[in-house]
């Protein structure tokens, strides 16, 4: 990857699972040029600029449909605000009272909270657990399927522990059982190959601001051609305005109001940038090499606890850890303030994951997530920084150990710091 990182910034950014930063210069330039020359409402009228803006949207739909291994109808690629928006729209549109849905305990709140709301609407929901290494067993999902199961929705890659789930196996099960299968591709779109057709994925929900390198406020879903979804929203489309109901033609069936045209243009530029780097596999290989280097370095430091960090296969360049003697938020603050390393701490909007790995009662973990512009030097600096705060955490832990009274093996009152 070309090193556009930190030339103008005096910090090392390892929070790419939250959003990729910086965005490629090519993407930023394309956005600026697009909005300066074609920043009008696309397709709402026949004048040249509107037609050109619409052509950019069409090209992005085509490109993303191919990118996700979709079918021939590129209008089934619909745009929204982000993956949370797409998942909410999907869940509220598909599930009705009396239905049953299945998800997992690996999910982000983008899935969890809509599912909790679905329960309030009279929908039964099962949450399938993950194993000690961080993976869901497809057989456990199959065992939960009932005659009234309408939807299985699950993360493709965990935003906390980084494990890539066996979605092709789950997709095959769902297709055999006649159950709609959707994935949350927030962490994988642009970084891990997704072939909706081969993997039997009915709906791919994605965001644009992570590994597709567009700005926040971009995303959507690809809906396979055999899937019939009746939207739970309605609004302006710019077409068939006399109808009192939402048009059922795609993409207007699942798109509402004026789109983020500049952000969608950035999605197109982001895909072009990925191709210019040699494709998804090249970027993934670069990021995983650095992530393993970082993981290995941390594993050698006394006082560091890693979680589900066997990163040899089926893993994202994302992992979490804790420092003995330091709460995660304090460890993250020290990395930032003392060492200029930007990370993410807490529960990462995925509380059930932290329950599963035993970190919910200690306010979560520290997360590192590598991006395309990180370098070996960044990784080595981060390792050194963690070693430094681990030594500090050890000192704190030792100060908190109970002192021994003379002639007694019983602990005295614990010292305070």
Structural class estimated from helices and strands: alpha/beta
* Rg for CA atoms: 23 Å
Instruction: Identify the quaternary structure here.
Output: single chain
The tally of domains stands at 2
Report the count of strand segments. Answer: 13
CATH class division of the largest domain: Alpha Beta
User: What is the CATH-assigned architecture of the largest domain?
Assistant: 3-Layer(aba) Sandwich
Strand line-up across the major sheet: 2-8-7-6-5-3-4
Beta percentage is 5-15%
Give the biggest sheet: 7 strands, mixed
CATH fold title of the largest domain: Aspartate Aminotransferase, domain 2
CATH superfamily of the largest domain: Type I PLP-dependent aspartate aminotransferase-like (Major domain)
N-to-C series of helices and strands: EHHEHEHEHEHEEEHHEEHEEHEH
- The low-confidence parts are 2-8, 404-417
Helix amount, in percent? 25-40%
Please count the helical segments: 11
Report how far apart the termini are: 46 Å
Compose a concise summary of this entry.
By secondary structure, the protein is α/β, with parallel strands linked by helices. It is built from eleven helices and 13 strands.
Keywords:
37% helix, 4-stranded antiparallel beta sheet, 11 helices, alpha/beta, 14% strand, Aspartate Aminotransferase, domain 1, 2 domains, disordered N terminus, Aspartate Aminotransferase, domain 2, 7-stranded mixed beta sheet, disordered C terminus, 13 strands, 417 residues
């Amino acid at each position: 990857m070309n090193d556009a990182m930190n030339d103008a910034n005096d910090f090392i950014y390892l929070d790419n699972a939250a959003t990729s930063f910086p965005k490629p210069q090519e993407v930023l330039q394309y956005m600026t040029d697009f909005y300066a020359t074609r920043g009008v409402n696309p397709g709402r009228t026949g004048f040249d600029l509107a037609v050109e803006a619409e052509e950019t949207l069409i090209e992005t739909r085509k490109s993303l449909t191919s990118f996700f291994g979709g079918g021939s109808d590129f209008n089934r690629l619909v745009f929204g605000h982000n993956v949370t928006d797409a998942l909410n729209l999907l869940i509220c549109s598909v599930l009705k009272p009396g239905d049953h849905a299945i998800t997992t305990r690996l999910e982000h709140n983008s899935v969890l909270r809509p599912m909790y709301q679905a329960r309030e609407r009279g929908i039964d929901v099962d949450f399938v657990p993950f194993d000690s290494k961080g993976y869901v067993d497809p057989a456990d999902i199959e065992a939960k399927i009932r005659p009234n199961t309408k939807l299985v929705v699950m993360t493709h890659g965990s935003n906390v522990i980084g494990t890539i789930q066996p979605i092709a196996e789950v997709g095959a099960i769902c297709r055999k059982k006649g159950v709609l299968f959707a994935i949350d591709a927030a962490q994988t779109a642009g970084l891990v190959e997704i072939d909706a057709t081969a993997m039997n994925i009915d709906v791919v929900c994605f965001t644009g601001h992570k590994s597709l390198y567009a700005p926040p406020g971009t995303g959507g879903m690809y809906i396979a051609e055999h899937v019939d979804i009746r939207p739970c929203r309605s609004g302006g489309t710019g077409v068939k305005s006399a109808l009192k109901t939402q048009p059922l033609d795609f993409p207007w069936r699942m798109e509402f109001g004026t789109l983020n045209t500049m952000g969608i243009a950035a999605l197109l530029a982001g895909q072009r940038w990925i191709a210019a780097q040699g494709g998804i596999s090249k970027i993934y290989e670069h990021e995983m090499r650095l992530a393993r280097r970082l993981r290995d370095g941390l594993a050698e430091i006394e006082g560091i606890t890693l979680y589900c960090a066997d990163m040899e296969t089926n893993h994202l360049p994302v992992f979490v850890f804790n420092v003995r003697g330091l709460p995660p938020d304090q460890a993250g603050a020290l990395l930032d303030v003392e060492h200029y390393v930007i990370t993410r701490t807490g529960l990462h909007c995925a509380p059930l994951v932290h329950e599963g790995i035993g970190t919910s009662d200690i306010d979560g973990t520290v997360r590192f997530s590598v991006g395309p512009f990180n370098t070996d030097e960044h990784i080595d600096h981060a390792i050194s920084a963690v070693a430094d705060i681990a030594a500090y955490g050890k000192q704190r832990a030792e100060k908190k150990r109970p002192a021994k009274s003379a002639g007694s093996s019983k602990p005295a009152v614990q010292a305070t710091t």
